[in-house]
Amino acid sequence: MRSWIFIAALIAASVQAADEKTALERGDYGPLDKAPTTALYDYPVKVSDHVYSAIGATQPPTYENAGHNNNLSFVIGAEAVLVVNGGSNNALARALHDEIKSRTNLPVKYVISENGQGHAVYGNHYWKSQGATLIGHVDAQHEIDEKGFGGLTRMREYAKEFAQDTELVNFDVTFDEQYALDLGGLAVIAKIYGSAHSPGDVSVLIPDDRVVLAGDMAFHVRMPPIFDNTDTALWIESFDLFADEVSDWTIVPGHGGPTDLATVTAGTKDYLVFLRDQVQQILDDGGSLDEAYQIDQTDYKHWHTYDELAARNAGRVFERMEFE
């Protein structure tokens, strides 16, 4: 009898230990690395005639993915190559460059960062050393000025040798609304639709291919992070402007593979509207921040980073909507 009790206790302890693991440890976000022979999390996929994207991990940054938890893309024209997102460190930028050189001999002349976050800008140090012109929104440059060194320190802690030669650099060119490039018979437009996920969020349009590298305007697969400075009401307005322009285009979000507008609408606008409606009901009833943390978001539990973000997102929406 005692042996059965002991076995049952072991099973219960094992189940409890499994429950205590994070989603990353449980493998809910897939492999820690899909391309172990390179710093990249995964190899680039061809999106269209001119566009490729190395789809990053839809999980937090780790040593195993070297911080490649966003999409690193490139566009090949007749005369030059554009990179979209410099990467989290020089090792990732160098690995992406190797992939580019396996497809074309053309120089990388330009790098556009989708915003001022670390995984969009820290690898710009490498691209600068290759002679590329670094381009970003004015608000993204402000993010680099305010938070760049702190984020660089944190990246060095998890990325270790991947980050050993990475330094902070500024954009060479900043813009307010949009910035156009000609890669040699191929027009590319970097454009901001308004306030979105973080300051300076831009999307990069390739009209000839009907492809948009949406950046953090649009999400699917993983839960959209809401920062303390994210205005979700304005994000919804910006998303509508974005959707009107690229309604039937191929969309490569900042995270997750190529998809369509319906998918990123469900993954972005619909979620923001849901969360705001829930918070508004709590406010109307005189409720508290604690109640916001308890909002039932289980319909989104299948999204990657749900464990890390769901409650925090609700709290941040509540705190901002209290003063709208």
Strand coverage percent = 15-25%
| Category from helices, strands and their pairing | alpha/beta
Amino- and carboxy-terminal Cα gap = 63 Å
Cα-based radius of gyration, to the nearest Å: 21 Å
CATH superfamily of the largest domain: Ribonuclease Z/Hydroxyacylglutathione hydrolase-like
CATH A-level architecture of the largest domain:
4-Layer Sandwich
Q: What is the N-to-C succession of helices and strands?
A: HHEEEEHEHHEHEEEEEHEHHHH
| Record field, number of beta strands | 12
Mind sketching the topology for me?
Elements: H1 2-20, H2 23-26, E1 44-46, E2 51-54, E3 72-76, E4 81-84, H3 90-101, E5 108-112, H4 118-121, H5 124-129, E6 133-137, H6 138-159, E7 173-175, E8 178-182, E9 187-191, E10 203-206, E11 211-215, H7 232-245, E12 250-253, H8 261-267, H9 269-284, H10 289-293, H11 306-321
Helix pairs in contact: 7-9, 9-11
Any descriptors?
Metallo-beta-lactamase, Chain A; 7-stranded mixed sheet; 12 strands; about 15% strand; single chain; about 325 residues; 2 domains; 11 helices; alpha/beta
Q: What does this entry look like structurally?
A:
The protein is globular. It folds into 2 domains: 1-28; 31-321, Metallo-beta-lactamase, Chain A (4-Layer Sandwich). α7 (232-245) links the parallel β11 (211-215) and β12 (250-253). It has 11 helices and 12 strands. The chain has helices at residues 2-20, 23-26, 90-101, 118-121, 124-129, 138-159, 232-245, 261-267, 269-284, 289-293, 306-321, and strands spanning 44-46, 51-54, 72-76, 81-84, 108-112, 133-137, 173-175, 178-182, 187-191, 203-206, 211-215, 250-253. The model is unreliable at 1-18 (pLDDT under 50). α7 (232-245) packs antiparallel against α9 and α9 packs across α11 (306-321). With 324 residues, it is of the alpha/beta class. A 7-stranded mixed β-sheet has the order 1-2-3-4-5-6-7. Strands 8-9-10-11-12 form a 5-stranded mixed β-sheet, with no helix packed on it.
